[in-house]
Amino acid sequence: MNRVLLVEDNPDDLELARLAFARGSLATTVDVARDGAEALEYLLAPGAEPPQVVLLDIKLPLVDGIDVLRRVKADRRTRHIPVVMLTSSALDRDLHACYELGANSYIVKPVDMEQFMAAVNNIGVYWLGLNLTDTPS
Fold first, then answer.
1. Which of helix, strand or coil describes residue 40?
2. Start and end of every Response regulatory domain (predicted)?
3. pTM tops 0.85
């Protein structure tokens, strides 16, 4: 079973992403963190089973997505996990900061509901179906 961590505080985007994964052809468990602190607890907990991919918003309560990314990519236990920034921010400074910190992809959330769901589905197809990862032993 594929496991995704969706870090999203917007309830509408959260529901659309879940629906997109449910409609997709890949068997996927979607775990949710609604703020950056919850995401870090999930990812850095001792003995935690890592997800195959993290979908991470930038604008989050408590700890923003850029700080979450920084901590995930700095930790030897989690730096191998692909992190896809799925955000409403199209700012160049955010894009550059995320790639500088090791983001694997940066996607600006489409405003249209169907386009948003298609983007999430495509993320799932690529990161869970096509992409091969090297996980530490």
1. helix
2. 3-124
3. yes
